[in-house]
Amino acid sequence: MKLTHNLSYPLLLVIFKSAIFLHNVWSGWAGAVPLSTGGESF
Fold first, then answer.
1. What would the pLDDT profile of 23-41 be if each residue is shown by its tens digit?
2. What sign does the dihedral 18-23-26-27 (CA atoms) show?
3. What span, in angstroms and rounded, lies between the C-alpha atoms of 18 and 22?
4. What is the reported pLDDT for 25?
């Protein structure tokens, strides 16, 4: 039980950090695309 607890906590921390990183990358990409496509279409 103690071994699985010690392994699961860093795993959750890595998943949490990677989720924040992917969210920042996705929001930055989604924020840049409408500007370029909107500038070209309008």
1. 888 888 777 666 555 555 4
2. negative
3. 6
4. 86
